[in-house]
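Journal club side-thread
Mid-discussion, someone asked how the predicted structure for our own chain would compare to the paper's figures. Pasting it here so we can look after the session.
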Amino acid sequence: MPDNDQQLVDQQIRYYRQRAPEYDEWFHRQGRYDHGPDHTRLWQQEIAVVRAALDGLKPAGRILELACGTGLWTQQLARYDGALTAIDASPEVLALNRARVRSAAVRYRQYDIFAWEPDEPYDFVFFGFWLSHVPLSRFAAFWDLLRAAVAPGGTVFLVDNRFHADSSARNHLSDPGRVTQRRELNDGRAFEIVKVFHEPEELAARLEPLGWCGDYRMTANFFIYGSASPAR
């Protein structure tokens, strides 16, 4: 793997560790992420579409959440009939996740996902707003890792950003043509992170040669989501 990718990944981990206390502002459209009530209403409606799609798959059995963050999706996954393992590289977000979910049934693990190896097969794997942070040079290796993690007949479900000018903070500039973006914290500290905006047709075209078949969709404005399974 090129050294610059590892440097980006390391900086990305530092960014999310430092951003942990303010991360939820992005999801809830608060502070710098507030683009007005109409925007927030659309955002919430589209999040509800994704949550309903996840619910419709009825996850069960051994469930894995990669890059679990502060628990915004862990809460939903923890309600399903199964044993949930939640993994993240940041101890800060794991602490916030535990405090939000408050479930002894969730097994938390701290790992850099690129260095993690599955310890058992999982029936359902979820990751939210993570795939866009995977460098393209590591894309195939990441899906090989998922193949090793998914039990026979298992499913992967993902949700991520589509490119939209108002998805990020008002003082962030995003360029869909770049695979890295500059991101600032509330205190002005800046970091360079990986940010690859996928679209359904492009994602399907990348995954099919890797032996994955799936159903990838978009909401009207903000999100790409869908499920995938290893091709038989």
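Post-session note: The first helix runs from residue 3 to 19.
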